[in-house]
Every structure is written in structure tokens, then in C-alpha cells.
């Protein structure tokens, strides 16, 4: 049975069962779990967890493991969202802007949008002066950018990188 399950993943048709979803949920909660600890949590042996984890990694469902750092104690106290409108709506201008973003360390996330704004950026900086430099000397200085609007986060109400795996469970599964 496990062999057929792995074959489906290798052909791009990923079919997850309840164990897979529990394994993914446990790793989202604590990525440092050993296969033994993972098995104890989800009711499988360490070797079964190892095989399943490896298959989920190979299928691209687990993209990596990393430490989550606390921004404020590190001195990164200002979180802002920046809406960017490009100066020209062409493929070349969009490619230049996207390539430029890779060099801007303060931008943690970037999204291409529909509507009046072309991109939404999430940026983390030390203070308002650093945000001013990012906006005026970095982003607005780039020739692909026409205008932008920034919003400073006053209070974070919720933060989660966890995917809603409960929505994937089939009734009775």
C-alpha cells in the first residue's frame, strides 16, 4: 500500500490520508520533531514517519525547515505594508521590478495583485527613519515604480504561517 502511495506522489498526483495531514500539522507546530516523536504524536512507527516525511518533501509539500526569529527583540520594531504601482504595465517593467525586489532585504513578502495596486509588499525595519529610507531612497528611486502608499502596523492581531490543513480533511477521513 505504501509503495502505491509513493508512486502517486512521484507522478504529481498527491493523495493525502489522515496520517499525512496529522504529520504535516505536527511539523507545522514543531518542525524539530524527530521521527520517533512524530510517530508518537500521530500513531505511526518512526520508520513509517520517516518514509512519509521523505515522500512529502520529495513531492514539494514540505519546502524546508527554519527557525522563526522574533523581530522586536532584534530591533526590527516597524512593520509596514507598501502598495506599489508600476510606472509602465509591461512585461519588461514587471520583470525588472521583481528582480529588484530580490535585492531588498527589508521586504519579507511580496504579492502581485489585481485591482488598482500592482504589488503589495510586507517590510520590516528598525524605525521610521529606516522606513523613510526604504520608501524614498530604495523603492521610489527605482525607475519601474510610479507611486506607492505605505501603512504602518500599529498592532499585530494574529500571526501564523500555518496552512489550514483542517480544510483538506474529507468528511469521515
From TrEMBL:
In Swiss-Prot or TrEMBL terms, this protein is called Transcriptional regulator, AsnC family
Q: Does the keyword NAD apply?
A: no
- Source taxonomy: Bacteria, Pseudomonadati, Pseudomonadota, Alphaproteobacteria, Acetobacterales
* Transcription regulation listed as a keyword: yes
GO CC terms of this entry = cytosol
One biological process GO term for this chain?
Answer: response to amino acid
Q: Which residues form the HTH asnC-type domain?
A: 16-77
Q: Provide the alphabetized UniProt keywords.
A: DNA-binding, Transcription, Transcription regulation
Tell me the Pfam families matching this sequence. Answer: AsnC_trans_reg, HTH_24
Record PROSITE patterns: HTH_ASNC_2 (PS50956)
What's an example of a GO molecular-function annotation for this chain? Answer: sequence-specific DNA binding
